[in-house]
Amino acid sequence: MDAAGVSQAVLLGWYWENHSTCVRQNAFYEKCIRAHPDRLAAFATVHPAAGGQALAELRRAREAGFIGLGELSPHSQHLPLTDPWWIKLVVLAGDLNLPVNLHVTDPDSGGYPGRIETPLAELVRLAEEFPRTKFILAHWGGGLALGSACGALGNVYYDTAASPLLYGADIWNRAMAASQGDRVLFGSDYPLVLYPRTEAAPGFGTLLAEVRTAGMGAGKTAAVLADNAVRLFGW
User: Fold this and answer.
1) Which regions of 153-225 does DSSP assign to beta strands (E)?
2) How far apart, in whole angstroms, are the C-alpha atoms of residue 57 and residue 8?
3) Residue 163 burial (10 A CB sphere; 0-12, 13-18, 19+)
4) Tens-digit pLDDT profile for residues 55-78
5) How far apart are CA 188 and CA 139, in angstroms?
6) Domains of the chain (ranges, CATH numbers)
7) pLDDT tens-digit profile of 1-24?
């Protein structure tokens, strides 16, 4: 963060296979945000199949200062989006005003280790059925950020995590044209190496340079890098 001139970052959780691992990660993140409250914020993670324990952990995380839930992937955690506990979790997140970050796979993307299908129509229906819950669809929403659904779903945001591994640099202007730029959030997927052909170590610098040279204009660039998050999280 210091090397790239990033003043504040949000730590995202992971869709672990066991709820106990989710709890361990939340405990670690709580230490991080307590140690660096001016630099770090965090999303909690849970395994929806833990049922009441998952709901209790989300409430506990909210009281500890967490600002969201995710990255989750019900498809990876072997749950349908109609699962009763998953639905209760989505409703509770809305009640607690915690945006839910979901892993999304572009159906047109090539194969890679760990790839799992996340049918986009299911995610659109989820957002439509629970309008009080805010959703952040990772990885440009698997391409949803480029389509007509983007503007129609007012409770849906899109993050840019791992963008260079999935899309060309023209994605920034293409998505801005679809979303008007008010619901795109800069995400890196750190510590992935985003430019493996030219870089051996992870970092934010090159991706930030890509954003700033995309030609979006000062207003939309600032929106993606900071202003949209400030508004979404009430900072």
Assistant:
1) 156-159, 184-185
2) 25
3) buried
4) 999 999 999 999 999 999 999 988
5) 9
6) 104-233 (3.20.20.140)
7) 999 999 999 999 999 999 999 999
Query: Quick one: tokens of 80?
Result: 């349908």
* CA 37 – CA 68 distance, rounded (Å): 16
Helices (H) and strands (E) in the chain, counts: 11, 7
Confirm if 235 and 229 have CB atoms less than 8 A apart: yes
**Quick check: 102 and 77 in contact, CB under 8 A?**
no
Q: Which helix (H) or strand (E) holds 43?
A: strand 40-44
Q: Please say whether the beta carbons of 36 and 44 come within 8 A.
A: no
DSSP string, 93-109: HHHTT--EEE----TTS
What is the pTM assigned to this prediction? 0.96
Closest C-alpha among 102, 32, 92, 94 to residue 65: 32
β partners of residue 68: 43
